[in-house]
Amino acid sequence: MNANGKADGTGFDVVVAGNGVLGLSLAWVLARRGQRVAVLGQPHRPWAGSAAAGAMLGCFGEVTTSLLASEHGRAKLELGIQATKLWPQWLAELEDQTEGAPVRTADGTTVILNTIGTAEIDDANYNLIRAELTRYQEPFEDVEPGDLDWVDAEPISRPLKAFHIPGEHAVNAAALLERLESAAVRAGATLVTEFATRVEYQGERATGVVLASGERIGADHVVLAAGARTQELLDSLPVGPRIPRLVSGYGVSSLIRTVDRTTPDSVIRTPNRSFACGLHVVPRGDGHVYVGATNVISVEPRDTPEMRDLVFLLQCVNRQVRRNLWNSEVAKVQVGNRPVSMDGFPLLGEGGMQGLWIMTGTYRDGLHLSPLLAQDFAARILGEQPQADLARFAPVRQPLRTGTREQIVDVLVDHQMGIGYEQDWTIPVEWHHWIEMDVRPATLAWANVLDPEFTPPAELLFASRFDPELVKLLRKYYATCREHG
């Protein structure tokens, strides 16, 4: 490797395709263990989810009825709980070994239930978050809506209830990435400022990657952690069709410089709704807040926002959280792409070939899971006892099911109706029932046309009605699943 971070054919113990939070975290752990590690990716991280993330370190705030409708969702939640316990030491070591801006930005998370949401989504998820906190004996405390000092919603969007989770914080994603990169390099990792375009293999063993420049990097182990762009690398492998295909959960977020230069102490968020991660405000330094985030399923990663998504986001935070944000400055608009597998669950573990590892498909949870997954994958690569039970999320698998077709359609219809209320539609009272009467059977009929056996997660089923390319990919994937039984 030369001084400019270009490959010169040097072999490594491990090459990590992807320089987001997951890739850098793994490189840091492996380099500290004496491994020769190369991390691949352009410095400005185009399309990455990490760079645009609100970086909430929480798993209970993400709980939904649909998540816990299956044993797979429960297992995913428990990975998040395991990761939460690792963050204090992880951050302490990172900040001790590097210099830069403070990483942690929020003291806990405050969940609000406001008048915008629907009972089927917001009330149900709000109550379930509390139930799961109680189940796992995690502390939380009720807060009177009138005592939420920084919240000043418009009257018809005001919070009705709120509670505070003291153990779910947030970090500055940009500062975290800068520190992780510095820590990995100090530990001996090599940064290569190019994308990998394909994985090389001989027989049943991965042997390295080819860069965009055409140069090759050889390695004993190849880790694919390039987020939504991992699909391009999977397409270069014979085992690729047997792995749930990745699409993008494209999202828009914004950094706002508040007009009065105030910020909340904690994260302020609603329960998850509208196929997305709920409205959330995360304090950042110097009078700035992060506002996020939308979620739209897209076959290809996006790098620019659609006008409607940005307008929707800014109107929501102005109406539902703080009215004087309307007079604040939009300092930055960010676009990120969450890696979403076609069954909605992570792709974690050995990739169906010797020396090939896959660490993606984490949807909204990759950054939060990063300390756990970095240490777990390092142990697996080094032949040690792993820390986490990832067996059900093995990349080569049949689609994981989250419910019956009828249950998934019910979730879709609830969220589709919820989008209307969050966008302030005005309809005669009886029309809600009438619309549902038409939408539910039409959606069920579409699911039957899409595939006779498999049903994708609600957000993919919703998106497929408007995206012929997504339909084509889903049908191709399901045909492969039947072929391999």
Overview of the structural elements:
- The chain is an alpha+beta fold and 485 residues long.
- The chain has helices spanning 21-32, 71-84, 87-97, 119-135, 173-186, 230-234, 307-320, 366-381, 405-422, 431-450, 458-464, 468-484; strands at residues 12-17, 37-40, 56-57, 104-106, 109-114, 141-142, 159-165, 169-171, 190-192, 196-202, 205-211, 216-224, 246-257, 267-269, 280-284, 288-292, 296-298, 329-341, 347-350, 356-360.
- Helix 1 packs parallel to helix 8.
- It is globular, with a radius of gyration of 22 Å.
Mean pLDDT: 94
Number of helices: 12
- What form results from the Cα inertia axes? globular
Low-confidence stretches: 1-9
Distance between the amino and carboxyl termini? 44 Å
Q: Helix amount, in percent?
A: 25-40%
- The Cα radius of gyration reads 22 Å
Strand fraction: 15-25%
Tell how many strands the DSSP assignment holds.
Answer: 20
Largest sheet: 9 strands, mixed
